[in-house]
Each structure stands twice: as structure tokens, then as C-alpha cells.
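Example 9 (inverse folding). The structure is encoded as follows.
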């Protein structure tokens, strides 16, 4: 009986070591952008123009030192540099309702002039459509909020935790203008802001404090994700929101001190549940000190189930990861939500399930509904770089990559159990 118990403890210990080894996943990127020449990359936004499929998706990223706004194609190539000077916060929205102004906008905070300017997608980059710049003292983090009626709100921090709110309106001549609608005070200076447009809820990442929920209609501020959360340490920095079909969502926060990203799922109005954490790397190249991040769930060219983009301090650039690759590389399976097709390629919005529900990554095993295009390796869009596909998650263990110390530790446990069995026999 004692021998059986020792064997049971050995198996349980092996399971514990397995999950500990997989606690931090390694997610491969497939594309990286050209570096920003000042060697300092800033905030970014994935830009998708649903009003005109002729405008390719792009990434708008700020140079916080001097050069302005860098615009990249999804293959990582540079499309344009908009010479605004030093840029800070960047965000984008589509499906806007204006009479003459474009239906897709990018907002960016210009540090030197202390104002927010607007651009719209055109062939080859962005066109400035600012009628009168929105004045925000020492503008830094910002976000856009598309209301249910298609109207747009700008929310920008002044580097003091004071959020300035503006209604963004059509000027009647094809450009936009902002009108102040009031202020909102946060309990600290945010490093990033995101809004769930469906509920009108804003989330603010505040270093040393965590992530706060802000009901924009009521102006309530509630702590939603404690910074340590019992799961990680370090300073939160970047923040992205991934919407789910059921009305909930995932919060992805970067932790620069640990070179990692954590994922929490919303679990109610003022609660979130920790799911997993991961680093982004390919071969020997690892994303270092990521401070900015963005994600879209939509089907894009080369990214069949959505796109995740992360800032890399060491490379002064941005790494692109197909969402299905990320979802299948973490020990906890993350949902894949593709709400519509955008008219850019064929396929059902729910990955062919026909039920409109969520699809969970199965690393291409063919049994979980992953959009892998029938490829047994789980590969979705490669992003045009020829990078590695999803890393398989072993059934039963769910280890995406085993720690090098796992097998020596397991051998030690086996020797301990063997020694106990011998002592029991001697007695």
C-alpha cells in the first residue's frame, strides 16, 4: 500500500512540475516591422478601414523621440512617416458615422505641440484630416470610444491622471474637430487606456497600482486587476482588449520588467480571472521590455483569425503574431473570435462552426474547430514571413515547452520514492 501511495505522489509531483514548466508560454512571432531609426518605438494601433476594402490594414506607431507617426504594412514594411514630431498615445476606430469626414480615423498625441491630431487611411498610408487640433496639455495615453450610434469620443490623459474628454465631430469639409465634454480624474497616471465600445467601459493601466475599470457613463473607477494578482510581479504598462461573443473579453497587459504579457478574462463588472502569461520570441530573438500592445479579432490578409502586435524595446520595432498561434501556444486555451469577414477573404465569421459561438485553439489537431485551413500543423496565416506555425500543446500535459530542469527534477522524485520503498522493505 505504501508503495502505491509513493507512486501516486510521484505522478502528482510530475503533473505539478509539468504545469509549472508550462506556466509561462513562449509564443512565436511571424512578422516584425522595420525598426524606428531613433531606436525608440512608442504606442501603436492596428488600423482597419471597413468602409473601403481597397485600403489595406496597417499599423500606426509613434516615435516618442522626434520623427512622428510610422505607418507599416502587415508584412512589416514601412509605408509612410507622417512628420508630426514626437508622438505618444495612438488609437484607431472604424465604422464611424460622419457626413463628410472619413469613417475610419487614427488619433495620435503630439508631445511637442501638446495636441491630438487625426489621420485617415488612404492608399499608401494616412492622410491628415485634422480641422483644428485638440489641445491636451502634455498629452500622453489616449483612447477612442465609438458609441453605439457611430459617434466618436476621444479620451486623453494629460500626464497627471486627468482625462480630457472630447466629442469628435465632422466639420462639414471632410475633416474632424473635437469639442470638450469634461474631465475625469484617475487615481494615478495611466500608461495605457482601452475601451470596450459595446459596454462603454474603459480600462486604464496604472503602473504600481494595476488595471482600473471606468464606466464612462457614470464615471465610476473600480480596481479590477490587482497588479500582482497573486500571479505576477512587476509594473503593468501596455494594455489591450480582446472582445468575446458573450459580451465579455480578455485583458492583455504587458509587464516590461519580466518581458512578458499576462492574460485575464473579465469575470464580472469589477473582477477579472487570471488565465496565463507568455513571452514573445522566435529562435534566439526575444521581445524585451514590451510597453505597448494591440489586438484585433478580425480576419485580415495573412492573419485568418485576428492579429496581436507587441512592442519590442530591444529591437525598436513591433512583432506580429497571428491570434490563432498565440491561442494555441499558451497552456490555457484562449478563445478565437472572428466577428466578420471584412470582405478581404472568404470564410464564415465563426470559423465555419455555423453556430456563431467561440472557437478554441486546438493547435491544428482537427478536433477543436481551429481555423487551420485544413493544415495538420495548425498553421493559419503566416503573415508573409515564413515564420514558425503554432507550437503544439501536448494532450494531457498541456506543456507548450518543458523547462530544462523538469526531467532532472522528475528523476530526483523517482529516486526519493525508490529510497522510501527500500526503507519500507527493510523495516
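The amino acid assigned to each position is listed next.
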Amino acid at each position: 500500500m505504501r508503495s502505491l501511495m509513493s507512486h501516486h505522489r510521484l505522478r502528482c509531483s510530475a503533473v505539478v512540475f509539468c504545469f509549472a514548466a508550462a506556466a509561462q508560454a513562449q509564443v512565436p512571432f511571424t512578422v516584425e516591422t522595420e525598426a524606428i531609426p531613433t531606436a525608440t518605438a512608442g504606442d501603436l494601433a492596428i488600423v482597419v478601414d471597413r468602409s473601403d476594402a481597397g485600403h489595406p490594414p496597417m499599423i500606426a506607431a509613434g516615435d516618442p523621440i522626434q520623427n512622428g507617426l510610422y505607418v507599416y504594412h502587415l508584412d512589416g514594411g514601412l509605408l509612410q512617416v507622417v512628420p508630426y514630431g514626437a508622438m505618444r498615445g495612438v488609437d484607431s476606430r472604424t465604422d464611424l458615422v460622419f457626413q463628410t469626414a472619413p469613417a475610419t480615423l487614427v488619433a495620435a498625441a503630439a508631445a511637442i505641440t501638446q495636441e491630438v491630431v487625426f489621420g485617415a487611411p488612404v492608399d499608401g498610408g494616412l492622410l491628415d484630416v485634422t480641422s483644428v487640433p485638440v489641445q491636451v496639455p502634455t498629452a500622453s495615453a489616449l483612447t477612442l470610444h465609438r458609441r453605439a450610434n457611430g459617434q466618436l469620443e476621444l479620451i486623453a490623459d494629460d500626464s497627471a491622471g486627468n482625462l480630457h474628454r472630447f466629442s469628435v465631430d465632422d466639420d462639414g469639409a471632410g475633416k474632424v474637430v473635437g469639442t470638450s465634454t469634461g474631465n475625469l480624474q484617475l487615481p494615478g497616471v495611466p500608461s495605457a487606456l482601452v475601451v470596450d465600445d459595446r459596454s462603454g467601459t474603459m480600462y486604464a493601466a496604472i503602473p504600481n497600482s494595476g488595471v482600473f475599470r471606468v464606466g464612462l457613463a457614470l464615471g465610476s473607477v473600480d480596481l479590477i486587476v490587482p497588479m500582482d494578482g497573486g500571479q505576477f510581479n512587476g509594473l503593468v504598462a501596455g494594455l489591450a482588449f480582446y472582445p468575446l461573443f458573450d459580451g465579455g473579453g480578455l485583458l492583455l497587459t504587458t509587464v516590461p520588467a519580466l518581458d512578458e504579457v499576462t492574460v485575464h478574462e473579465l469575470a464580472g463588472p469589477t473582477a477579472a480571472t487570471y488565465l496565463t502569461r507568455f513571452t514573445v520570441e522566435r529562435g534566439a530573438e526575444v521581445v524585451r521590455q514590451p510597453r505597448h500592445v494591440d489586438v484585433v479579432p478580425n480576419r485580415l490578409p495573412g492573419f485568418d483569425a485576428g492579429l496581436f502586435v507587441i512592442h519590442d524595446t530591444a529591437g525598436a520595432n513591433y512583432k506580429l503574431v497571428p491570434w490563432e498561434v498565440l491561442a494555441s501556444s499558451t497552456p490555457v486555451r484562449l478563445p478565437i473570435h472572428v466577428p466578420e469577414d471584412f470582405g478581404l477573404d472568404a470564410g464564415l465569421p465563426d470559423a465555419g462552426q455555423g453556430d456563431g459561438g467561440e472557437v478554441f485553439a486546438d493547435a491544428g489537431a482537427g478536433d477543436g474547430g481551429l481555423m487551420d485551413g485544413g493544415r495538420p500543423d495548425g498553421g493559419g496565416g503566416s503573415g508573409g514571413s515564413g515564420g514558425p506555425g503554432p507550437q503544439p500543446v501536448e494532450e494531457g500535459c498541456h506543456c507548450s515547452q518543458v523547462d530544462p530542469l523538469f526531467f532532472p527534477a522528475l528523476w530526483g522524485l523517482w529516486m526519493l520514492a525508490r529510497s522510501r520503498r527500500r526503507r519500507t522493505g527493510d523495516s
